[in-house]
Design brief:
Largest sheet: 11 strands, mixed
CATH superfamily of the largest domain: SGNH hydrolase
CATH class of the largest domain: Alpha Beta
Helix content: 10-25%
Distance between the termini: 92 Å
Structural class: alpha/beta
Strand content: 25-35%
Mean pLDDT: 94
Number of helices: 6
CATH architecture of the largest domain: 3-Layer(aba) Sandwich
Number of domains: 3
CATH topology of the largest domain: Rossmann fold
Radius of gyration: 27 Å
Length: 466
């Protein structure tokens, strides 16, 4: 027959495996509960402390708790250094222990707690993670996840598994697989030296309207609820979404609606400069109409413009990454994307100098000799297309007379790419790059970073200045 617990009982506080969001290098925990004993005692005092899980060495020594009515107690332990893993201990001292806390009556403990940074995963299936091929991406102490069950755990794939879920609104229809974010967390932990916690709210197939409070917003509300359940403070959002909006009714307004979601998120959390780390859409295999290709191009362009026009929104490319089916990134591709996101976070959030920015079209200029010069930002060496022929380039020029064939190209220094055309341009012309649902594979690549150029759509070709 089980005995009733005695000593200090924790009824409110962090879970085992939980990551506490640090601020300025420190975190805090709030504990509350009751005490009980079968002995006759007086002068009861409840204590709590924090120790290193590995050694038992004290981090925050025994602190007296505040006593309340009806044998209840509470305490806030501040100044816990970013790091861990830690163990939180409690005990009950009383008249019979003569002030020797180490001989006090037992108390509840919380194990494997870290103080670090929290990141929310949001978006659709490639955020939930559907990589199905084998890839080495094991769990690691110090990278933990708040499961959909509401329980903290050591992070391991699949991150969005729904056993005993509390959030049926984002329950996957099929079992998910690998995602980029375990690898992301491990790389951040390695570079920062403290734990990383992952929160999950993604849902496969979800359109942006489910994340935008001015539309349906059901997944947005779920995301905010999860964040607030962990104190309301996070370090950033990991966003990967857009396939479901590559349609006639949604693609043209994607940028405006995404901006709206970002503004609501920052306002509702009181985090005005919350970073949003995004991934530009990868390809989707199969045949597509010209109209469908343009829808995908408009969403990718909206994602590119979001990173250019919304403060603290950042983007990494994915179009050079492999798939595990017609639309979902492979497990090995997710490792690549996790590293790209980690580099972006280290650079933009933590001020660590890393290379993560992909070549990004700055402008397209019609030269006086009839050729078109493309100028790219974020090129460290030069762009190269691996000597493919001009028709194999994922570039398309349109003017008032229709498609204009590119017959030759030349990769020049300082991020320039020179195109020779089959005929002169007529009237206003635009250029697209890797915009189709399944664009040609050989994207221009920076030969130092090996990052492919971001996709773009309907970039206006300007006349060369006099």
């Amino acid at each position: 027959m089980a005995q009733s617990p005695m000593g200090a009982i924790i009824e409110k506080g962090p879970q085992s495996w939980q990551i506490i969001q640090q601020n300025n290098g420190y975190g805090k925990v709030e504990l509350a509960g009751r005490w009980t004993t079968n002995e006759k005692v007086s002068d009861v005092q409840i204590y709590a402390r924090v120790v290193h899980e590995e050694t038992g060495e004290s981090v925050i020594p025994w602190q007296p708790c505040i006593h309340l009515e009806d044998q209840r107690w509470e305490i806030t332990i501040s100044g816990i250094p970013a790091g861990g893993l830690y163990r939180i201990e409690t005990c009950m001292d009383h008249s019979g222990t003569n002030g020797f806390v180490q001989w006090g009556i037992r108390g509840d403990m919380v194990h494997h707690v870290g103080v670090g940074d929290l990141f929310m995963i949001a978006g659709q299936s490639n955020a939930a993670g559907y990589g199905k091929d084998p890839a080495y991406d094991p769990p690691e102490l110090g990278v933990h996840i708040l499961r959909n069950s509401g329980q903290w755990d050591l992070a391991s794939h699949p991150l969005n598994e729904s056993t005993n879920t509390l959030h049926e609104v984002n329950m996957e229809h099929s079992n998910p697989g690998s995602s980029p974010y375990l690898h992301f967390g491990k790389l951040l932990k390695k570079n920062l030296g403290y734990p990383i916690g992952l929160l999950q709210s993604a849902l496969g197939g979800s359109p942006l309207r489910l994340w935008n409070p001015d539309e349906n917003g059901v997944l947005y509300r779920n995301m905010i609820e999860i964040i607030k359940s962990q104190g309301g403070d996070i370090k950033g959002i990991l966003w990967y979404q857009g396939c479901s909006d590559a349609c006639e009714d949604c693609c043209g307004s994607y940028l405006e609606r995404f901006r709206n979601m970002v503004e609501y998120t920052r306002k509702d959390l009181g985090l005005r400069e919350l970073p949003i780390l995004t991934i530009q859409l990868n390809r989707c295999l199969g045949q597509a109409s010209d109209q469908e290709n343009r829808f995908w191009g408009m969403v990718r362009e909206a994602q590119r413009q979001a990173a250019r026009t919304i403060p603290k929104v950042y983007i990494v490319p994915s179009l050079d990454c492999g798939l595990s089916d017609v639309i979902h990134n492979s497990s090995s591709a997710n490792l690549t994307l996790g590293e790209r996101l980690a580099r972006a976070a280290l650079n933009e959030i933590y001020g660590r100098e890393t290379v993560y920015r992909a070549p990004d079209l700055k402008k397209a200029v019609l030269k006086k000799d009839g050729r078109v010069m493309l100028y790219f930002d974020n090129v460290r060496m030069r762009l190269d297309a691996y000597w493919v022929t001009a028709p194999e380039l994922p570039l398309c020029i349109e003017d008032q007379a229709g498609i204009v064939d590119i017959t030759e190209y030349e990769a020049l220094s300082e991020g320039r790419f020179l195109l020779t055309l089959k005929r002169p341009l007529q009237g206003q012309a635009v250029i697209h790059g890797s915009y189709e649902k399944n664009p040609k594979f050989y994207l221009p690549v920076d030969m130092e970073t090996h990052l492919p150029a971001l996709a773009f759509y309907r970039a206006v070709i300007e006349p060369e200045a006099l």
